[in-house]
Amino acid sequence: MKYRRLGKQGLKVSELALGSWMTDVSSEDKQELAAQSIKEAYENGINYFDCADVYSRGAAERFLGKALKQFPRKELVISSKVFFPSDTGVNDHGLSRKHIMESVDQSLANLQTDYLDLYFCHRFDPDTPLEETLTALSNLVDQGKILYYGVSEWRPVQILKAQLVIERLGLHPMSVVQPEYNMFDRYIEHELMDVCEELGLGIVPFSPLAQGLLSGKYRLGQPIPAGSRATFQEDLKAMITDDNLKKVDELDKMAKELNTDLATFALAWDMRDPRISSLITGASKPEQLANNLKAIDLEIPAEYFDRIDKLFGFKKFEREI
């Protein structure tokens, strides 16, 4: 395994992380498979495990906490998130001080740990002043319940506004950002990556395989495989268009030129930029994890980056004057 710093922080995280967004914990058999993946991830040097209170209504946190209990806590980087409804009460959502304080305690209990290494604001909350949210997070650092905090899917201007509040109030700094990032969704390259670099924030993207579109399962002219994520996840199903699948075919040809598979190629492409600290990948089965790990050692020649830009018609936004 290779490790990168979390932005300008001293914390080091594995280039690949294991996430729990799509971990299926609905049965003992599936939990056993997922637990085996976690064990193999740890044994292969993955130290970063990501979760959220909303995943499977808390069941994902409880499962992850139980699975990680067998490993030394000091060797793990564990993260969770707060924002989405945790119950039906009027204050059981958002980024109010009340919801943050109650949610972090529940996450700590679920994960069977005294502290979280990383704690994310899962989304931006327009109904709560930034001063309230950021002061609560800074207080949690003082209390030792979290070591670093960050945000997920915040716009660059929201992050910059938060930075002004942090500086004005003398709060503990923000350390990390978790956006979506993959070949089909490169919005962070327009502004967000530059903002993170300027502020020294680590970037730990989720959905590096575009929710599975870049996994190699979905092909032009072929039916959606039975039991695959696209059979029940509408966001992914909407992405499976002829135009997108033609791009997938071209990417698969590039991968074969490098004697690798599409998923490995896509993950290695995500990691090409040193500003990326870690990629949050999903692996509910050990064989998926083994395939993801191949990306660590794959070096993609620079000429392929130009070919991919051309395939997607990508150009970083710059206003012409």
Write a concise keyword list for the protein shown above.
alpha/beta; eight-stranded parallel beta sheet; two-stranded antiparallel sheet; 11 helices
Describe this structure in words.
With 321 residues, this protein is an alpha/beta fold. The protein contains 11 helices and 10 strands. It has helices spanning 28-43, 59-68, 97-111, 130-143, 156-169, 192-199, 234-239, 242-257, 262-270, 286-293, 302-312; strands spanning 3-5, 12-14, 16-19, 48-50, 77-82, 116-121, 146-152, 176-178, 202-203, 279-281. A hairpin with a 6-residue loop joins strand 1 (3-5) and strand 2 (12-14). The longest helix is centred in the first third of the chain and has 16 residues, at 28-43. The radius of gyration is 19 Å and the shape is globular. The mean pLDDT is 95.
Present the secondary structure layout.
Layout: E1 3-5, E2 12-14, E3 16-19, H1 28-43, E4 48-50, H2 59-68, E5 77-82, H3 97-111, E6 116-121, H4 130-143, E7 146-152, H5 156-169, E8 176-178, H6 192-199, E9 202-203, H7 234-239, H8 242-257, H9 262-270, E10 279-281, H10 286-293, H11 302-312
Parallel strand pairs: 3-4, 3-10, 4-5, 5-6, 6-7, 7-8, 8-9
Antiparallel strand pairs: 1-2
Helix pairs in contact: 1-2, 1-10, 2-3, 4-5, 8-9, 8-11
User: Main beta sheet: strand number and arrangement?
Assistant: 8 strands, parallel
- How far do the termini sit from each other? 45 Å
Number of strands: 10
Helical run tally? 11
Proportion of residues in extended strands: 5-15%
Oligomeric state, counting identical vs distinct chains: single chain
CA radius of gyration is 19 Å
Q: Roughly how much helix do the residues carry, as a percent range?
A: 25-40%
Order of helices and strands: EEEHEHEHEHEHEHEHHHEHH
Which shape, going by the Cα principal axes? globular
Q: Reading side by side through the largest sheet, how are the strands ordered?
A: 9-8-7-6-5-4-3-10
Q: What ranges have pLDDT less than 50 throughout 5 or more consecutive residues?
A: none
